[in-house]
Specification:
Blueprint lengths: L33 H12 L17 H4 L13 E5 H10 L1 H4 L2 E6 L2 E9 L11 E13 L2 E11 L2 E2 L13 H5 L4 H9 E7 L2 E6 L2
Antiparallel strand pairs: 1-8, 2-3, 3-4, 4-5, 5-6, 7-8
């Protein structure tokens, strides 16, 4: 059985951040050619100080740059959230404890997870053991509303009976519990669209 954090398709699980969330970016330091270096030196001798290069539009603001007085305006704010599989696992990698216990996979309309559960030593029979738990949750958007459905849970490769899951397997959680208010109702009312595809999750929010 594969280890959490290991992907046989060779997709890295532990890259920190990504372009969509504006965490860490891979960057290549700009190197001036010899002619460019000589030109800048000559300009400085003439008393001209070349202006610093304009920041790239793709370069995210640092926390200190963002923390400035500014009037609030959400008319230009993006209402779409993008998460890649590498970003989600990168967030987990930032937490050393979770990085050793949890790995997430994104495929068409499905969010899957693998989790290592360490059983308390005093627990009968399984005490001190580490259980390998996997689960799948359908996440989609149908009939103008989000659908969140538990597809199943397996422990050590053995599917857990639906009765042990409280009868929640293959149940649309929003359709089942949304009318009761609370989290699922609020979640459904705030989401305009959900798309899960291979390696990517997109959530569009309402105004």
């Amino acid at each position: 059985m594969d280890r959490p954090g290991y992907d046989p398709d060779h997709r890295s699980r532990y890259l920190l951040g990504g372009q969509d969330l504006h965490y860490a970016h891979d960057f290549k330091q700009v190197e001036l050619s010899r002619k460019e270096q000589q030109l800048n030196s000559k300009l400085k001798l003439l008393g001209y100080k070349p202006a610093p290069a304009a920041p790239s539009a793709d370069k995210p603001e640092t926390d200190s740059e963002w923390l400035r007085p500014e009037r609030y305006d959400d008319t230009k704010g993006k209402r779409e959230l993008f998460f890649t599989e590498r970003e989600l696992n990168g967030l987990l990698a930032n937490n050393r404890d979770l990085a050793k216990k949890l790995a997430v996979d994104l495929s068409d309309d499905m969010v899957s997870a693998r989790l290592l559960v360490h059983v308390d030593p005093d627990f009968p029979i399984l005490g001190g053991k580490t259980l390998r738990v996997s689960a799948g949750v359908e996440a989609a958007f149908h009939d103008k509303r989000p659908v969140i459905r538990l597809r199943g849970v397996s422990v050590m490769g053995i599917p857990v009976p639906n009765a042990w899951l409280g009868g929640l397997k293959n149940v649309d959680l929003i359709g089942e519990f949304g009318d009761a208010g609370g989290f699922w109702a609020a979640f459904a009312e705030g989401v305009k669209d959900i798309q899960v595809e291979d390696g990517r999750l997109k959530i569009s929010l309402k105004e």
